[in-house]
Specification:
Strand content: 15-25%
Distance between the termini: 33 Å
Number of strands: 4
Order of helices and strands: HHEEEHEHH
Helix content: 40-55%
Strand order of the largest sheet: 1-2-3-4
Radius of gyration: 13 Å
Largest sheet: 4 strands, mixed
Shape: globular
């Protein structure tokens, strides 16, 4: 099953949303505080949008699909947090209106 998640993650990397692309431009190549982020990375059997191993930090960009799967997202977040990961969630709207919202939240964490 883990192998199929890796294939799924690879597919998601090729079909990023507009908002994910915007965030990736800020996080990629150690552009943000010299931290290495991975995109569409498999953790605990879940594919997360962005992940920084050094900080055990997950960044999730929530689009419209997340409105329909709040229970699943809550369970997923609980499992990841129980495993020691920190999750920062931002909506597509926040990314589109003001990327500084996300950047400030990340800076506060770092």
């Amino acid at each position: 099953m883990h192998y199929s998640k890796k294939i799924f993650a690879r597919t998601l990397r090729k079909k990023q949303t507009h908002e994910e692309q915007k965030v990736w431009e800020v996080l990629r190549n150690r552009r943000f505080h010299n931290l290495k982020f991975r995109r569409q990375h498999v953790l605990e059997g879940f594919v997360v949008d962005f992940y920084c191993h050094r900080l055990r930090l997950v960044v999730e960009i929530d689009g419209k699909v997340h409105e329909k799967q709040k229970e699943y997202d809550g369970l997923r977040q609980a499992i990841l947090e129980e495993s020691g990961y920190i999750i920062i969630r931002v909506s597509n709207d926040e990314v589109n209106r003001n990327m500084d919202v996300l950047l400030n939240r990340l800076k506060q964490f770092v």
